[in-house]
C-alpha cells in the first residue's frame, strides 16, 4: 500500500519547473500518512448495520385550497346545490375578464350563433311541420307553447294558417270541387256516335272571342311581325365598281388578269420552290380598306392578284360592294369569277375582270363560308356554310338550291375539299368535324371528342395529306386528310393566342413551315417537323386574321389584320 501512495505522490515529478513552482504556491502539500487522504482507495466495510439517510429536496409550497378565495362554477351546470354569491355566478371562466368583449360576446354559447338548449322533438311532428311549411307556407312556432294555438303560434304565412285553421298536410282539407262533366258519347260499339275520351265538356264553349285588351296586343304583335318580314325582304344593295388603274388593257389588249412573265419567277409553273426561308422584313403595305380585313385570297395557280374582303363592305380587286360586312370570298379555278359571302345574307357571283355582279343567291340566312367545287366538271356548283347549321349547295346556272347538308348542331364555319375533290370536310360551332361525300346529305365520318374545341379556320396542306385546324384552345391541330381523318398527336403547334378569333393558317410551298396570325397582331412561324415556334413578327396593331404564303415565292408571306391593312413580308 505504501508503494501505491509513493507513486501517487511522485506523479507529475517530470513536469517543468514552472508548473512545479505554481503548484507549490497554490496547492497545500498532503501528508501521505494521513488515513483520510487514502480513504477512497480502501474497500468499503461490509457492516450489516449500515443506515441510509432520506433527503426531501421538494420546496415547501402552499396548497391549492389555501390559495383559492372562492368557488368556481361550471358554466354548463343547470342546478347548484348551494346559494352562490353574485361574484361566484358571474366570475370569468379563467383569468381576468376580457375588457373588449361586449355583453353579447360574453354570454355563454355552445354554437356560433348563440346558446342552443337541447330539446326533444318527435320525428313525425318535425316531418309534419316541415311538409306543411313547404306546401302551405306556414308551420307551428316550436318556441311557443302549442297547447293554446293562436295566430302567434305560427310562423310564415299567418293569414293562410288562419284561413286553413292550422291545417297540416296529413289532415284532410276541404272537399274538392266536383269535376267538370263530359257529354256522354254512347256505346263503344256505335262507331259513328261514340266519342270516348274526346267528348267535350258540358259547359265548354266552341269559340271564344278575345277581349279588347287582348285584341290590341294581338294587333301589335301582328304589326311587328309584318314589319320584321318587310325588313328581311329588302332588296340587296346596289353594286358599284371602281377601276383604279389607268387603262384596263395594255398595248397588246391584255387585261390585268393576264399572268405577268417579267417578275423574275415563273408564275405559271406547277412546281413548288425547292427550299423556303423565313420572312424577315415588311416590303409593302396595301391600305385601301377603311375597316378590318376579314379574308384574303390569292389568284388561282399564279398568285399574281390578291382578292380581299373587309368589314367596310368592300371587296378589293376592282371594288364591288355589299350593304354589310363581307365574311368570306372564293375564286373559281380559272380566277375569272369569284364568290363573296356577306352579313347582308347574300352570296354574290362576280366577274373578276369587269367587277360586275353576275348573280345573287340567298336563303335568308347569314353565310359564314363559301367554296366552289374545285372539280373542273362541277365549276357551276358551290357550297356555303350557313348560320342555321346547314350547308347549302347552289347551281349558278339556275340559281336554285340543289342540295342541303343538315347534320351540324351549330353554325358552319369552314368547308374544305379533300381526296381529289370527292369529299369535303366541315367544322362548326358544335365543336365537331364532319366529312361528307359530295352530293350525299349524310356525313360518313363524325369526329367529336370531349376535349375538342371549335375550329373556325381549316387549311389543306400543299401535298393534300394534312388538314391544319385552328383550335380555340390556342393550338393548331393536324388531322389526316386521307381515309381515316385521324388526329396527329405528334403535330401540335402552340405558343400563340387565338381564342375567340378565326385566324387563318397556311403552309409554305415546300411544307417546311406553318404560319398563322394571332390576337396580338403577330405573325407566328413554326417548323413543320419539330413543331417549334421559329419566328414571331409584330405584323399588325390589331388582330392578324389571316396569313398566306405565296405559292411560287420562297419567303414572301401576305398578312391582313383588323387594322384595315394588308402587308407583304419577305
Describe the structure in your own words.
- This is Pre-mRNA-processing factor 17.
- The structure is a single chain.
- The protein is an alpha+beta fold.
- The protein is built from eight helices and 29 strands.
- It has helices spanning 2-9, 17-26, 64-67, 86-89, 103-106, 123-136, 158-164, 212-232, and strands spanning 138-140, 154-156, 282-286, 293-298, 306-310, 315-316, 326-331, 337-342, 347-351, 357-361, 367-372, 381-386, 391-395, 400-405, 412-418, 423-428, 433-437, 445-447, 457-460, 466-471, 475-480, 487-493, 505-507, 513-517, 522-527, 533-538, 544-549, 557-561, 566-569.
- The strands form eight sheets. A four-stranded antiparallel sheet has the order 3-29-28-27, with no helix packed on it.
- A hairpin with a 4-residue loop joins β5 and β6 (315-316).
- The longest helix has 21 residues, at 212-232.
- It is flat, with a radius of gyration of 49 Å.
| Alpha-carbon distance between the two ends | 112 Å
Q: Give a count of the beta strands, DSSP E runs of length 2 or more.
A: 29
**Low-confidence runs (pLDDT<50, min 5 residues)?**
15-27
Helix segment tally: 8
Strand line-up of the largest beta sheet = 3-29-28-27
Question: Taking all residues together, what is the mean pLDDT?
Answer: 83
Overall structural class, as computed from helix and strand content, comes to alpha+beta
Q: What is the share of helical residues?
A: 10-25%
Form type: flat
What is the C-alpha radius of gyration, as a whole number of Å? 49 Å
What composes the largest sheet?
4 strands, antiparallel
Q: Tell me the fraction of residues in β-strands, as a range.
A: 25-35%
InterPro entries: PRPF17 (IPR032847), WD40/YVTN_repeat-like_dom_sf (IPR015943), WD40_repeat_dom_sf (IPR036322), WD40_rpt (IPR001680)
Subcellular location: Nucleus
Keywords: mRNA processing, mRNA splicing, Nucleus, Repeat, Spliceosome, WD repeat
Region (Disordered): 1-40, 205-238
